[in-house]
Amino acid sequence: MALAKLILVMLILGLVYLSISGRLHILGALLALALPFVQRLLPFILRLLPVARLFKQRKSATGQNSSNSGNRSRVSTAFLEMTLDHDTGVMDGTVLQGEFQGRSLSDLSESEYIQLLKTCRSQDGDSARLLETYLDKRFGESWRADDTGPATDQSTEGSGELTRQEAYAILGLEPGASHDEIIQAHRRLMQKMHPDRGGSTWLAARINEAKKCLTS
């Protein structure tokens, strides 16, 4: 952009100089000589314009996708590895052990969700809390009509301390992220997962813990 402005200024100054010096007719002669070449090259230039525009669009899209590729949180428990997309708020996850090991949560049936939840409640409280968060996020309160077990306590009691690696994963950041990036990621996640906005008390606490771990 700066180079284009410089060239434009030089052309204007050149025209002013030729006009003052009475040599403007030289420019006219040069244009007359160049006209046949311009006429021959014009179709080729016009064909290149859509290609250049398409290349620019693809480059822009690639840059956008690249900047958003890390915009995802990951929370792991004994039974689940859950991901949360910061932009859409969509959650999904994978079962790490047990009867449904290797299955994606989005592929489970309603009865399988309840069976998995019973297993998590009996063996790992954090996994049960995380699965309830996923079910609330995806189905609202409707899934609880089929839930015959007691709701899991959503407090953070029993949750182990986070490692820095886990904290980075929860906030969707790469190790070494700056203080400002940590604060922004925390704010963005809390806007989606705060209990007052339909989020989970337990998961919100983990997000706060991740921020504290990385900024203290």
UniProtKB/TrEMBL annotation:
<dbReference type="InterPro" id="IPR036869">
    <property type="entry name" value="J_dom_sf"/>
</dbReference>
<dbReference type="InterPro" id="IPR001623">
    <property type="entry name" value="DnaJ_domain"/>
</dbReference>
<keyword id="KW-0812">Transmembrane</keyword>
<keyword id="KW-1133">Transmembrane helix</keyword>
<keyword id="KW-0143">Chaperone</keyword>
<comment type="similarity">
    <text>Belongs to the TIM14 family.</text>
</comment>
<protein>
    <submittedName>
        <fullName>DnaJ domain-containing protein</fullName>
    </submittedName>
</protein>
<feature type="domain" description="J">
    <location>
        <begin position="166"/>
        <end position="216"/>
    </location>
</feature>
<keyword id="KW-0472">Membrane</keyword>
<feature type="region of interest" description="Disordered">
    <location>
        <begin position="142"/>
        <end position="161"/>
    </location>
</feature>
<dbReference type="Pfam" id="PF00226">
    <property type="entry name" value="DnaJ"/>
</dbReference>
<dbReference type="GO" id="GO:0016020">
    <property type="term" value="C:membrane"/>
</dbReference>
